[in-house]
Write a structure and sequence with these properties.
With 276 residues, the chain is α/β, with parallel strands linked by helices. It is built from ten helices and twelve strands.
Length: 276
C-alpha cells in the first residue's frame, strides 16, 4: 500500500525544536485534515516532509512507499510522488509559468512530453481551476492575485499528478467561488487519481467540501489526537479548549516567550460568525 509514514519526527529551526515526536501516516485515496492552533508546527511538518533546508530533522524517520524520504533531495521527493502547495506561493519574475510547468513534467518523466500534448494538458488544467489561459505565458505568480496564486498551486498539482499532496492553507484568502473551485479539483484528484491529501486549514467550509476521512490535531509540535470528521466539527463548534478537556492536552505553548503570542481562536468559528 502506498503510504507516507512519519515516525517520532523531531524538527528544529535555527536551533529551536518545533516538532517533538510526530507520528502520522498518510495513505493514497484518503484526506487528512491537519488542525491546530497557530504556531504549533503544522506548516513545519509539511516543510520538513518536502525537504526545506531551513528545517533540520534531528530524530525520527519519514518513509514513502518503503523509501527513506530523508535521504532524498527535494526534487527526488517530488519525482517520487510528493507535492506541496505553499501557503504563500512565491513570485518569480522572469520565469515563464508554462516553461516552469513543462520543465517540471519533463523532470518526472523518462521521455520529454510533446509540446502539443503539454499545451493540451495545460489548457485542460487551466479550465478546471478557472485560470485564464493567457496567464501561463506570464512570469510565475508575478502580479497574480492571491486567489490566482492559490489556484495556480492546484493547477500544478493537477499537472504533476502526485501520489500524496500536502496543501498548506490552500483556501486562505479565497472567496466562496474560488474555494468551491479548489475543493472540486481536490475531490476529482482523489476520486480519479486516488491521490492522498494532508490538508492544513482553519476553515470548516473547506473540510465540509472535501470530506476528510481522518482528522489529526497538532498541539505543541505533537499529534494530540487523531479521529474522524467529528473532531474538526467539534473544534469548529467549541474551539481547541475541547481538545484540552477531552484529551487532557495543554494548549499553552511550551516556550514561555511564545505564550505572549496568541495561539489563535478557532478560525472556523470566527468565519461563520462573520458571515452570519
Amino acid at each position: 500500500m502506498n503510504e507516507l509514514i512519519i515516525k517520532n519526527l523531531h524538527v528544529e529551526v535555527e536551533g529551536k525544536e518545533i516538532l517533538k515526536g510526530v507520528d502520522l501516516t498518510v495513505s493514497k485515496n484518503e484526506v487528512i485534515a491537519l488542525l491546530g492552533p497557530n504556531g504549533h508546527g503544522k506548516s513545519t511538518l509539511l516543510a520538513a516532509i518536502m525537504g526545506n533546508p531551513k528545517y533540520k530533522v534531528t530524530e525520527g524517520s519519514i518513509t514513502f512507499n518503503g523509501k527513506d524520504v530523508l535521504a532524498m533531495s527535494v526534487d527526488e521527493r517530488s519525482r517520487n510522488g510528493l507535492f506541496l502547495a505553499f501557503q504563500n506561493p512565491y513570485e518569480i519574475p522572469g520565469l515563464v509559468s508554462a516553461e516552469f510547468y513543462k520543465s517540471a513534467l519533463n523532470a518526472r518523466s523518462q521521455k520529454r512530453i510533446p509540446l502539443f500534448q503539454f499545451y493540451r494538458k495545460l489548457e485542460e488544467a487551466s479550465k478546471e481551476v478557472k485560470i485564464p489561459f493567457e496567464l501561463v505565458n506570464r512570469s510565475l505568480n508575478d502580479g497574480f492575485s492571491g486567489g490566482e496564486k492559490k489556484r495556480n498551486e492546484i493547477l500544478q498539482m493537477i499537472l504533476l499528478n502526485p501520489e500524496i499532496a500536502m496543501l498548506d492553507e490552500i483556501d486562505s484568502g479565497l472567496d466562496v467561488d474560488a474555494i468551491n473551485i479548489v475543493s472540486e479539483a481536490i475531490n476529482k484528484q482523489k476520486e480519479e487519481k486516488e491521490t492522498g491529501f494532508l490538508v492544513i486549514s482553519h476553515y470548516a467550509r473547506l473540510f465540509d467540501l472535501i470530506h476528510p476521512t481522518k482528522t489529526a490535531v497538532m498541539i505543541n509540535g505533537r499529534i494530540a489526537c487523531v479521529g474522524g470528521p467529528e473532531i474538526f466539527k467539534k473544534i469548529d463548534e467549541f474551539g481547541y479548549e475541547w481538545v484540552k478537556k477531552e484529551y487532557g492536552v495543554s494548549i499553552e505553548k511550551e516556550d514561555v516567550q511564545m505564550n505572549q503570542v496568541s495561539i489563535g481562536v478557532c478560525a472556523t468559528k470566527e468565519v461563520i460568525k462573520n458571515e452570519n
